[in-house]
């Protein structure tokens, strides 16, 4: 499985409350259940008017299928080539 960053343009997403975010997660999870095991949601970061989501997927088509089923846009899909963090220095 390839790791991807999905950028979703969603005006006002940063103003959603916990209940609304829970509902969005439930919608996403329902779509993911239909596509399993081709795509997995790892986590999402909410920013002003967009989210940045980390997914594992067989290919970009699986991510686009999730976007279609969930109703959440996948405006930019970027394959992740590698990961670094503060501990990378010790590798």
List keywords for this structure.
91 residues, alpha+beta, 2 helices
Q: Can you describe what's shown?
A:
The chain has helices at 18-35, 60-70, and strands at residues 2-9, 39-47, 50-57, 76-79. The mean pLDDT is 97. The two termini are 23 Å apart. The protein is globular. The chain has a four-stranded antiparallel sheet. By secondary structure, the chain is an alpha+beta fold.
Q: What spatial form do the alpha-carbon principal axes imply?
A: globular
User: What is Rg?
Assistant: 14 Å
**Poorly predicted ranges:** none
- Total number of helices: 2
Instruction: Label the structural class.
Output: alpha+beta
Helical percentage: 25-40%
In round numbers, the mean pLDDT is 97
**Beta-strand percent range:** 25-35%
The H/E string reads EHEEHE
